[in-house]
Amino acid sequence: MRKFFTAFRNREDGAVTVDWVVLTAGLVGLCITALTTLETETLGLVNGVADELDERNIF
Predict the structure, then answer these.
(1) Cα dist. 57→11, 16, 38, 49 in Å?
(2) Rounded to whole angstroms, what are the CA distances from 16 to 3, 11, 26, 51?
């Protein structure tokens, strides 16, 4: 039994998969954060332009 656990501990077959899962999850989280921030700032800018255009008499 001890030999089995020692061999299991020394194997590195699944370690690369775990690394890629963690890196991919971090990248997805970073993208979601960036897109949420970008969306919020863009909507604020659009609303500011719309308010400015509403105040001016174009016709």
Answers:
(1) 73, 63, 30, 14
(2) 23, 11, 15, 52
DSSP codes, 13-52: TTHHHHHHHHHHHHHHHHHHHHHHHHHHHHHHHHHHHHHH
Residue in the structure block whose two tokens are 């999850």: 25
Q: Quote the pTM value.
A: 0.58
Q: What is the pLDDT of residues 21-42, one digit of tens each?
A: 999 999 999 999 999 999 999 9
DSSP letter at 13?
T
Q: Is it the case that residue 14 has pLDDT exceeding 80? A: no
Could you give the CA distance from residue 42 to residue 58 in angstroms, rounded to a whole number? 24
